[in-house]
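Example 9 (inverse folding). The structure is encoded as follows.
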């Protein structure tokens, strides 16, 4: 199945123009080029002799109230599209971001959306949040040299991708190298003191964070205690405010922080903590896991005790008896969104 990519960082428009050229001019493949910001001409900032050298005219207009899926479907039936390229994705509406997901999965056309994670470096973009929740891959295209500054990293994956095992492995290798680590976890979890992976790894957390706790307030102690690296388990359950506090610890104390957690809930909505991490972390890494059908799994599902898929309810459920699992996009669409994916390529309207 075709992928939906979200790419952020410096040099987005230049890469888009380059990719468009490779598809269309070099290989004669039909593509749709969209600029979500007012359908403007796409210009990279690369200037030679006072002229923008990489410029591309969109060949596809976004209109409010007109279904993007429907329009792409018609164009695809007409000419056969090989790729959809989108610039300034932070200006997409939520439903347009969803349409891009459906286009990649139902019409099997790869979609590459370039954009910023925030609007004007501050404001949340609901379109990009939806895009990041549904994207197969979130990629940073910044080609700048890695700096020596500490970073805030978000390692995300679906259920059963061995997040906790990877956290504990990272913890151990840091300790082996002579670093002093601090493991933080949110209070929400059942087994309060320990973080434990299913394969039996287990370690006591150093700090348990309640919803109202301010972790930045403890940074001075951690610094004096010569902590070199902070690891956060179940980071999706931290509040956006606590994620911002972690950001400040990285910036003010130059202390690296690695967060591990889920990206989205059982209905494919971002957890508030994960959303903030996706918006303001330095690096985003995906941990892979596999759906029972064999494809890569990006989505989480919840099943009740009778093995029925749960399709509504609270984001965080302490109910016993429910099971969580991970599934690929197509299985998720079929089981949770109740979309008949067998009719792919022939579906005119979702
Ligand atoms: Zn599957």
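The amino acid assigned to each position is listed next.
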């Amino acid at each position: 199945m075709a992928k939906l990519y979200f790419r952020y960082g410096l040099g987005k428009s230049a890469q888009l123009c380059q990719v468009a050229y490779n598809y269309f001019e070099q290989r004669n493949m039909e593509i749709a080029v969209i600029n979500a910001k007012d359908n403007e001409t796409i210009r990279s900032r690369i200037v030679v002799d006072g002229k923008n050298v990489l410029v591309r005219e969109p060949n596809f207009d976004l209109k409010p109230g007109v279904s993007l899926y429907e329009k792409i479907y018609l164009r695809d039936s007409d000419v056969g599209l090989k790729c959809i390229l989108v610039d300034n994705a932070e200006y997409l509406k939520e439903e347009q971001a969803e349409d891009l997901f459906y286009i990649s999965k139902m019409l099997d056309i790869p979609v590459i959306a370039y954009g910023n994670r925030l609007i004007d470096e501050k404001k949340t973009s609901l379109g990009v949040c939806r895009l990041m929740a549904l994207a197969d891959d979130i990629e940073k295209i910044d080609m700048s040299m890695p700096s020596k500054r500490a970073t805030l990293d978000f390692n995300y994956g679906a259920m059963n991708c061995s997040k906790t095992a990877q956290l504990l492995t990272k913890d151990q290798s840091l300790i082996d190298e002579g670093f002093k680590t601090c493991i933080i976890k949110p209070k929400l979890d059942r087994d309060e003191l320990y973080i434990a992976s299913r394969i039996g790894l287990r370690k006591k957390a150093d700090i348990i964070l309640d919803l109202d706790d301010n972790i930045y307030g403890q940074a001075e102690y951690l610094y004096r205690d010569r902590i070199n690296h902070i690891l956060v388990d179940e980071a999706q359950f931290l509040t956006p405010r606590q994620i911002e506090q972690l950001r400040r610890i990285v910036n003010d104390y130059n202390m690296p922080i690695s967060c591990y957690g889920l990206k989205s809930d059982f209905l494919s909505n971002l957890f508030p903590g994960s959303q903030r991490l996706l918006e303001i972390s330095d690096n985003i890494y995906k941990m892979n896991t596999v759906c029972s059908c064999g494809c890569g799994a990006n989505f989480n599902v919840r099943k009740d005790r009778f093995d029925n898929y749960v399709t509504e309810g609270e984001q965080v459920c302490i109910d016993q008896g429910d099971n969580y699992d991970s599934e690929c996009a197509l299985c998720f669409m079929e089981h949770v969104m109740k979309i008949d994916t067998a009719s792919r390529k022939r579906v005119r309207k979702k």
